[in-house]
Amino acid sequence: MILLPSITPSAKALTSLDHRIEAAIGHSINRLWKYHDRGLLDEPLSRLAEAHRTLSDAERGVTFYRVLLQRLASGELPVDEALFARIDRTIAHLKDATVTRDARQDHAVAVLEPLEASAPARATAAGADLIAHEFAALLAISQGAKLHQHLQTGRMSVVTASGVRVAHPVFQRLEDAGLVIRDVSHPLHAGQPVLLTDSGRATVTGTTRAPATTAAPAPQAGSWPTSARTR
User: Where are the beta strands (DSSP E) in 63-102?
Assistant: First the structure.
């Protein structure tokens, strides 16, 4: 009995576009996927992450049937009509998988090309002046957070969705730097939602805005999250 090739469904398969994507966004594919899962990307980059994931899935399908075909022809099974039938079916599946892969690759290229055309110049990483615990606080806030004021003591602190508490002075430094913003339409005792600004998201993802020389133009669709200069 021949064993089928084992491919973990959640594994990321390499694609022919990986190098181009990483060059355009200035980050690895792993970070692109991670930031997409955290909701830190703008719409064009989210489309790129989704297109790459579907392409990676299609590459896994091609690999599965190619490896299966190799095993069928390896000499492990007796050569008979049943083997010929299995080889024919596998070849048909491999052709279908290749057609799907090529179609998804074309789609990914269509999403990628505008990003390559408008890739911003890279400079020093945003938020480089943050010390370690401030950056850790910003990263925790990126998962969702609220600023609360204790009714009895009057003390304020930020509680993140993961349960991490951020001291109010640390939050104030992040707020003063323009990295976070709170929704003041909610009362403090009930909790004011705290969100990352564009600069905050760029700091977490490690990207920057190209220096402005004139009046800032309208944002180009598909640019990696940009940032204002931090303190």
Answer: none
Separation CA 124–CA 176 (nearest Å): 20
129: number of CA atoms within 13 Å, CB side?
7
Strand partners, 157: 148, 167
pTM for the model stands at 0.54
How many Cβ atoms from other residues are within 10 Å of residue 68's Cβ?
20
Per-residue pLDDT tens digits for 40-51:
888 888 999 999
The two structure tokens encoding residue 210: 């190209």
* For the chain, the helix, strand and coil percentages under 3-state DSSP, each to the nearest 5: 50, 10, 45
> Whole-angstrom Cα distance, residue 118 to residue 180?
27
- Residue 205 near residue 27, CB atoms below 8 Å: yes
The C-alpha atoms of residue 141 and residue 183 are separated, in whole angstroms, by: 14
Nearest partner of 105 among 188, 185, 17, judged by Cα: 17
Encode pLDDT of 21-69 as tens digits: 887 887 788 888 988 898 888 888 899 999 999 999 999 999 999 999 9
| β-sheet bridge partners, residue 165 | 159
CA distance 196 to 167: 17
Question: In degrees, to the nearest 5, what angle opens at C-alpha 181 toward C-alphas 178 and 187?
Answer: 150
